[in-house]
Amino acid sequence: MANVRLFDTTLRDGEQSPGVTLIPEEKLAIAKQLAKMKVNVIEAGFPISSEGDFNAVKMVAENVKGIEVAGLARCRKGDIDRAWEALKDAENPRIHVFIASSPIHMEYKLQMSEEEVIKNAVDGVKYAAQYTENIEFSAEDASRSDVDFLARLFEAAIDAGAKVINIPDTVGYSVPSEFGALIKDVREKTPNIDQVDISVHCHNDLGLAVANSLAAIENGATQVEVSVNGIGERAGNAALEEIVMALYTRKDYYGLDVTQDTTQIARLSKLVANSTGVSIQANKAIVGANAFAHEAGIHQDGVIKERTTYEIMDAKTIGLDHNKLVLGKHSGRHALKDFLDKYDYELDDASFEGFFKRFKDLADKKKNVSNADIIALLDNELYDYEKTFELEYISVLTGRGLLPTATVRLKKEGEIIQSAACNGDGPVDAIFQTINELTGMENIKLMSYKIDAVTEGKDALGEAFIASEIDGKIYTGHSSQTDITEASAAAYIEAINKYLVYNKNK
Ligand SMILES: CC(=O)SCCNC(=O)CCNC(=O)[C@H](O)C(C)(C)COP(=O)(O)OP(=O)(O)OC[C@H]1O[C@@H](n2cnc3c(N)ncnc32)[C@H](O)[C@@H]1OP(=O)(O)O
Ligand SMILES: CC(C)C(=O)C(=O)O
Ligand SMILES: [Mg+2]
C-alpha cells in the first residue's frame, strides 16, 4: 500500500510561533520523540537565522539517526553554506531552499521579475547540489502564484537538481477544492514532475490547513508538511496529529498506509506544549483534554454499551493507554521501570535513582498517583541541559493584612548561594522578585504565568507554566510539583536557565 511521507516542521515553522524560543536541548528532545514516532523528515531550523538555531540544527543532525534532517535556506550562498555546515553530520541531510513565486511577493518583497526568481532558484538549487542530492525546493506563496509560472519554476528547479518540490499555501488563503485542483494542475503542467516528490505546506489562517493538505493528498501530493499541535507562523501549520489520525482512521477512504507510530502522539503533543509554552485548547482535535471525554448522558450511555457508538478513535491509539499496575508509595523499582518501558522513557541509572526518589516523595504526599502524575514528573527532567541555577529552599509568608514575603535559597553551578527575601504585590510576585535579586536578572518581563492541576482532586500535582521576555526573546519554563509555590519558582528559574544556555556563546 502506498503512503505519504511526513515532513515535520515543528522545530522551524513551529518555532516561528510568536513568543516561542526553543533552546537546542529542547529541540533535540522533541526531535528524538519525532524520530520515535517515525516521521520521515525533521526540519530542525533555519541555520543562518541565529547562532542558537545553527547549534540546534547541528545538535539534531549529529544525534538523531535513522531519519532525514532538513535545514532551511533562502536562495543565497551564505544561507546554503550555513545550512550545510549545520547538517553535514546528519545520516541523511536535506537542504531546503525556497523563494517566493507570487506576484505580490516578487514585486514588493523580493523586487525581482519572474525570470530573476527562476534564475535565483536554479542557482540556489545548483549551489546546494554541490553538498547533497537531497534538495527540497519551495515556491513560497505558491497558492497565490500563476500556475503556468509555477510550472516553469518547478521544471527549472527539478532540472537543476531538486528532488522534492513543495507547494506551500503560505498565507492560508486556499480552500480545499481549489488547493486540490492546484496540485493537479501543477502535476499536469510540469513536464518532469514525475521525477520528484510533491510536497504541500499549508497554513491555518482560515482554519483549513488540514483540509487543504488532505485535498492535496487526494490529488497526488506524496509529502505533507506538518507541525505538532499545529503550531507555527500566525495561526500555525497543518497539525501533525490531525493529518496522521485522519489518514489512519479513514484508511478505508484514503487507501494509504500510515507508517508512523500513532501511540507516540499524546506524549509528543505534551512535550511540545510544555517546551514551547503554547498550550492546547481543550476542544483541540485528537490531543485536546476533551477529545475523548463524554459529557452528555445519552453519549455516556452509548459509550458504556459500546465505545464505538460515539468514539471514532480509541484513545489507546494515540498513546493514552491506562496502565493496569497501580503505582504508589508501596511500589518498587521494578514496577516503576516497567512503567517507563511501557511508555518508552529512557533514563540512565543515575537519573532513574533520582527519579525513583522523587516518585516516592510524591507518593508520600499524594494517595493516588496517576499515570498523568508520573508523566508530569518525568516531563520535569526530559532533557538535560546546563542548569546554572537550582532551587534549594523556598518559603512564602502571605495572608490577609500581611505583606507577601518570599525567602529563597538557590544553588549556582552546584554551590549554594546566599538566600534572599523580598516583598511583592502577591506571593508569586514576591517569589519572582527574590529570584531576580539572587540571579542578578533585573531585565525579566513576565509575559504569562499559569497554574494547572495535572489531575483532579485536592492533592493534585500543580503544573506551573511561565513565559518571560529577556532581552527581546521569550523563554518558557515549566514544572510540576505538589506545592505550587515551588512549581512556580522552579518554572521561573527554568526560563532563566534557558536564557543563559541560549546566550552562553554570545
Ligand atoms: C514563509 C517562511 O516561513 S520563510 C522563513 C521565515 N523565517 C524567518 O524569517 C525566521 C528567521 N529569519 C531571520 O532571522 C532573518 O530574517 C534572516 C537572518 C534570515 C535575514 O535577516 P536580514 O538579513 O536582516 O534580512 P530581513 O529578514 O530583514 O529581510 C529579508 C531579505 O531576504 C530577502 N529574501 C527573502 N526571501 C528570500 C529568498 N527565498 N531568497 C533570497 N532572498 C530572499 C528579502 O528580499 C530581503 O532582502 P533585502 O535585504 O535585499 O531587502
Ligand atoms: C519556507 C516555506 C516552506 C514556508 O514556511 C511557507 O511558505 O509557509
Ligand atoms: Mg510556513
UniProtKB/TrEMBL annotation:
<dbReference type="Pfam" id="PF22617">
    <property type="entry name" value="HCS_D2"/>
</dbReference>
<dbReference type="Pfam" id="PF00682">
    <property type="entry name" value="HMGL-like"/>
</dbReference>
<keyword id="KW-0100">Branched-chain amino acid biosynthesis</keyword>
<dbReference type="GO" id="GO:0003852">
    <property type="term" value="F:2-isopropylmalate synthase activity"/>
</dbReference>
<dbReference type="Pfam" id="PF08502">
    <property type="entry name" value="LeuA_dimer"/>
</dbReference>
<keyword id="KW-0479">Metal-binding</keyword>
<dbReference type="InterPro" id="IPR054691">
    <property type="entry name" value="LeuA/HCS_post-cat"/>
</dbReference>
<keyword id="KW-0028">Amino-acid biosynthesis</keyword>
<dbReference type="GO" id="GO:0003985">
    <property type="term" value="F:acetyl-CoA C-acetyltransferase activity"/>
</dbReference>
<dbReference type="InterPro" id="IPR036230">
    <property type="entry name" value="LeuA_allosteric_dom_sf"/>
</dbReference>
<dbReference type="InterPro" id="IPR005671">
    <property type="entry name" value="LeuA_bact_synth"/>
</dbReference>
<dbReference type="GO" id="GO:0005737">
    <property type="term" value="C:cytoplasm"/>
</dbReference>
<dbReference type="InterPro" id="IPR002034">
    <property type="entry name" value="AIPM/Hcit_synth_CS"/>
</dbReference>
<feature type="domain" description="Pyruvate carboxyltransferase">
    <location>
        <begin position="4"/>
        <end position="262"/>
    </location>
</feature>
<comment type="function">
    <text>Catalyzes the condensation of the acetyl group of acetyl-CoA with 3-methyl-2-oxobutanoate (2-ketoisovalerate) to form 3-carboxy-3-hydroxy-4-methylpentanoate (2-isopropylmalate).</text>
</comment>
<keyword id="KW-0808">Transferase</keyword>
<feature type="binding site">
    <location>
        <position position="13"/>
    </location>
    <ligand>
        <name>Mn(2+)</name>
    </ligand>
</feature>
<feature type="binding site">
    <location>
        <position position="237"/>
    </location>
    <ligand>
        <name>Mn(2+)</name>
    </ligand>
</feature>
<dbReference type="GO" id="GO:0030145">
    <property type="term" value="F:manganese ion binding"/>
</dbReference>
<feature type="binding site">
    <location>
        <position position="201"/>
    </location>
    <ligand>
        <name>Mn(2+)</name>
    </ligand>
</feature>
<dbReference type="InterPro" id="IPR000891">
    <property type="entry name" value="PYR_CT"/>
</dbReference>
<comment type="similarity">
    <text>Belongs to the alpha-IPM synthase/homocitrate synthase family. LeuA type 1 subfamily.</text>
</comment>
<keyword id="KW-0464">Manganese</keyword>
<protein>
    <recommendedName>
        <fullName>2-isopropylmalate synthase</fullName>
        <ecNumber>2.3.3.13</ecNumber>
    </recommendedName>
</protein>
<dbReference type="InterPro" id="IPR050073">
    <property type="entry name" value="2-IPM_HCS-like"/>
</dbReference>
<dbReference type="InterPro" id="IPR013709">
    <property type="entry name" value="2-isopropylmalate_synth_dimer"/>
</dbReference>
<feature type="binding site">
    <location>
        <position position="203"/>
    </location>
    <ligand>
        <name>Mn(2+)</name>
    </ligand>
</feature>
<dbReference type="InterPro" id="IPR013785">
    <property type="entry name" value="Aldolase_TIM"/>
</dbReference>
<dbReference type="GO" id="GO:0009098">
    <property type="term" value="P:L-leucine biosynthetic process"/>
</dbReference>
<keyword id="KW-0432">Leucine biosynthesis</keyword>
<feature type="region of interest" description="Regulatory domain">
    <location>
        <begin position="390"/>
        <end position="506"/>
    </location>
</feature>
<comment type="pathway">
    <text>Amino-acid biosynthesis; L-leucine biosynthesis; L-leucine from 3-methyl-2-oxobutanoate: step 1/4.</text>
</comment>
<comment type="subunit">
    <text>Homodimer.</text>
</comment>
<keyword id="KW-0963">Cytoplasm</keyword>
